[in-house]
Here is the input.
Amino acid sequence: MNSFPILSSIIILPLFGALISMLVKGNDKDVARNVRDLALWISIVELVLVILLCYQFDFNNNNFQNIEKKVLLSKFDISYFLGVDALSLVFILLTSILFPICIFYTKFSIKFRTKEFMVCFLILEALVMGVFSCLDIVLFYIFFESLLIPMFLIIGIWGGQRRIFASYKFFLYTLAGSVFFLISIIVMASIANTTSIVELDNYYFDIFLQKWLWIGMFLSFAIKVPMWPFHTWLPDAHVEAPTVGSIILAGILLKVGGYAFLRLSLPILPDASAYFANSMIIISIISIIYTSFVAVAQDDIKKMIAYSSVAHMGYVTAGIFSLTAEGIKGAIFQMVSHGIVSSALFLSIGFLYERTKSREIKHYSFLVKSMPTFSFLFIIIVLSSVGLPGTSGFIGELFSVLGVYKYNAFFGFFVATGLILGAIYMLRLVREIIFTIENNKVLVLNDLILSEKILLLFFVIITLLLGIFPNLLISFIDGYTLKLIKNY
Amino acid sequence: MIDLPNLNTILPEFFLFISGILLLVYGAFSNNKNFSNINILTIISIFICIISISFVPDNSSIANSAFVNSLFTNSIKTFILLLTFLAVYVSSNYLNKNQLNVFEYPVLLLFSVLGMLVMVSSNDLIFLYISIELQSLALYVLVALRRGSIKGSEASLKYFILGSIASAVILYGSSMVYSVVGSTNYQIIKEFSDQSYDNLILSLGLVLIISGIAFKLSAAPFHMWTPDVYEGAPSSVTTILVTLPKLAALVVLVNLLTNPFINQVETWVPIIIIISILSMAIGSISAIKQDNLKRLFAFSTIANIGYVMIGLVCVNDEGIKASFLYMFIYTLATLGVFSFIMILRREDRQLAAISDIAGISKSKPLLAVAITILMLSLAGIPPFGGFFGKLFIFTAAIESGYLYLAISGVIFSVISAFYYLKIIKAMYLDESSEDLNYNLDKKQFFIIVFMAFLMLIFVLYADSLIFFINYIYN
Here is the structure.
């Protein structure tokens, strides 16, 4: 089994699928159906492959596994170097779960140019898998940057009214950050004369250099996460993106930033990470509190969820830079939880949007009457988002706050206020759209159809499962966290 | 002067010259003015010329080493001839459709290429000047080929006057160098400057020569002619203008700077740095407002030349190899882009506005994908070829201690990403108002897809390519 290049298959299969999809010809309706089925099957095979990968993963071994290496460029030995550890595996699993769901849902939300959409989507999946499984920093950059292209097209072609503005902003904003990451990579590579992440982990850069390298990386990752004050592209991108685009954006692409902090900044530049930990937590606190207040003021549901994403990712960065085992576990847990919860939230908004073509809070009222199933499931998701015990959101936020508290009690207090602020706007949303009757006007909407119910229920089950049995994930990443934290 | 045993030193140039003359005679005297015959003959002579390069001995020279061959010059010549072939191949239908199918066209092109081949090998300022003039004069006429068009005439006049001034500046610089050195041979100039490296007149001469070559490279601040000439010239000529002379001029510049004037580093490095930053800045910022594809890519060329210059600043082999790698990627991608401009034709009318390509992704999906790849490659987005070009340029800059050049390079690459995105946006995001069902020219389409494919799989052959560049350059 070891000889089978399972990681490469995971990356190549969607690309292959994209190539096949491009070649499908015929009348629009048939093409759309066939291509969607093809993409769905490919993403399901991906899921199977990933489960296989998890199955043969040795949890007692903290080193990288399933290693594949082939030198691409002899300069610096830039190589096609893949491998997974527990951290990568968590995100690969998350990706492989979210993609089939999104592809399934496109049946309802993507009405034109389905073929192109599926091609973009499959390429996106391949690139995301690449980001999470590569162990060469230049290769990482290649995957990290290439992600922009399909996402640019997804927002730009299938987006809402201001889609062109949003897609440009998304692309250029992210690119502007990434190029400094590239400079950091080149500087590191020319000093250490290697681009392998494993070897860079063991290489010591002097502290002055570390700080500058760290800042270069920070600009890129902070925009990706996004952290205040680099978050302004996110609301636009989310609001204009089609529902599945938002799901992938919030569910996976934001995690790339957090993943990059954990995979690159912390192990390669430990001194600088420790040096900047204070400022990072302060920025995270500002992120959490500021965007929570901004979210309170929103009229657009999607925008509100987008701002709440920024706030939730604030816990992630705060947790990571508390540099404690609890904080980092909390951050990873929070990323997974947010991946599930925000996807479910965007999916719910998508359901509403399909029915009324409106995202305004004030257009919805008393949904509990007309859409009882939706309301029930939606409330569980919202509660998970605000961190109610028993849901996955609670565990992530608890651990992050715990980590920060351990680092500095004063900071811990501020991070914890985010829990209350989060509850304010999310519960307001629930009250306004689900329980309030305005002018006795009750919106008549059809409740969820079966497939929609199943999709949403699936997310609810996962969030409850992770909330009640957090050890499923925590024990998974225990070894990784201990290894990472050893240096601090 | 040339005794027969030495003939194989200049075999390709000699052959190109003879075939140019013969084609001229054939074109002038044959009653049957069949353009495609001449075109085929041109292609055949280009190929024979490529073959003849293999008979040229490495490290040979004639005329008191005024004309020097090496493995490096031979490889560059082969590449130039291959590019010429591609340019002829891609533009044959364009010329037919636009009534530019006169027999002078391939003949002039051959003479221009002859000039470039001599430029690459020249090891003497006089040879350099004559070859640059030969190359340019043929191109001036080619630019003026569309006699009826006002823009074409304006372009050719502008190109001719400004180009002549640039040539005069090179000549003036050469005469200054000659006045102190007493010779125009590179080797003797080098020996002279070894002894007196702070000679003011020598430096002034160098500055003038660099300015003249920078004009040929269309590097800022000597770039003013570029957008107008590129727009006014027939697209097939623009295709030649953006690829071949740039490569030849780069070789000339590298030869000059690393051979006779290597001791003058304090003089020319700051100049090249300024040229580089200005080119990147002007190329990136001015292109944003352009609506005409040809003008837009004229500015894109200026910006790309700026990146190439970064490699020269490093004053080491790594940097120069990175420059040539970048130039290689740039010429191939630009060839694809200008084939795209030639292919845009609807109802007997060439198109060149961005709005004309709106919605092209629906009717011509493969074309749109290929152009997207070329655009992203030019913008330096991974995993395409352009990214690796920039990666090596920036690596060379950082390793030589020019971190600020790398940083300004990446900043301008973000700015230039904006206008490359504009083209992708037009193809995918905009709706078209006109019917887009027109037939594509097969040759041009093939070149576009082929170049896009080369950019796409660049990472797979990058290592062999870099190895090859290492091999020929050392």
Remarks:
- The first strand of chain B starts at residue 61 and ends at 62.
- Chain B touches chain A through 37 residues (CB under 8 Å).
